[in-house]
Specification:
about 15% helix; alpha/beta; about 260 residues; 4 helices
Length: about 260
């Protein structure tokens, strides 16, 4: 199928449009935009300068991709928003581009971003994520692969969420959430291992048992995170899941959500 651009859409002459792209009436494609093959841009969507979009993405009505960053540190510099491949971006989503010419906001591949969610400047959303309706993701955050942020969840600036995490609806996260777990309530608290999703993702029962054992040391013994890591190394056999947990926690200097400060 050839590229189809409605005469009622605005496509800047400087924009680079791939093959088999469909741009519907009243879409706005700014200058300095690249849209890869097979994308579909629905009506009343705006793709703003500095956006680099991969292949086979579908962006629904009213979304703004690459919007100006909402940060006083941005002074009008040329900055970027990178969208990977095969993402679905539903109605009225706003994704801000970065505040500096290097880095930028980055959305990976094959994620589903639901209506009226907002992803702030310089955030990094890895592959295969689900972002629920009305989720708010502030700037300079990271969301790991195969992670679900349920509707109305809020991720504060400079927070980091590991791989295969489920954040329950309406939960506010201000900090770092290690991989493979469920977080719920406000204030946010540990709600168990994300076992159902992990099984669907091919994790074995032994791996899920190792994850549960590791997090009992972290969240259910009342010891410090430092001591919990030592116990995990003694009690859980080496492997992908143990390394994923310990490496994440060490990377964030032992500071994880739902641990009292005197136990960090």
């Amino acid at each position: 199928m050839a590229t189809s651009i409605s005469p009622l859409a605005h496509v800047d002459p400087e924009a680079k449009i791939g093959n088999n792209v469909t741009i519907h009436p009243f879409a706005f494609i700014d200058k300095n935009v690249e849209i890869g093959d097979g994308c579909e841009i629905m009506s009343y969507t705006s793709i703003i300068r500095g956006t680099r979009m991969g292949t086979d993405n579908k962006v629904y009505q009213g979304s703004i991709i690459g919007a100006d960053p909402q940060d006083f540190r941005w002074k009008g510099e040329e900055t970027y928003c990178y969208i990977g491949n095969r993402n679905v971006i539903r109605e009225h989503v706003i994704i801000n581009r970065g505040i500096a010419s290097e880095g930028g906001t980055r959305i990976g591949n094959e994620s589903f971003i639901m209506a009226e969610s907002h992803i702030g400047h310089d955030s990094h959303l890895k592959d295969h994520c689900v972002i629920g309706n009305g989720v708010t993701i502030a700037g300079d955050t990271e969301v790991g692969e195969c992670t679900i942020l349920s509707s109305g969840a809020m991720l504060h600036e400079n927070s980091r969420v590991g791989d295969w995490v489920l954040i329950k609806g309406g939960c506010r996260i201000a900090g770092n959430v290690p991989p493979y777990i469920i977080m719920a309530h406000n204030p946010a608290s540990y709600f168990g291992v994300n076992a159902v999703i992990l099984r669907k993702g091919g994790y074995t029962e032994d791996e899920i048992d190792d994850i549960a054992k590791a997090y009992r040391h972290i969240y259910q013994t009342g010891t410090s995170v430092f001591n919990a890591l030592r116990r995990i190394e003694a009690d859980v056999k080496p492997g992908k899941v143990r390394n994923g947990i310990t490496e994440f926690i060490n990377d964030v200097n032992l500071k994880i959500v739902a641990i009292p400060r005197d136990l960090e």
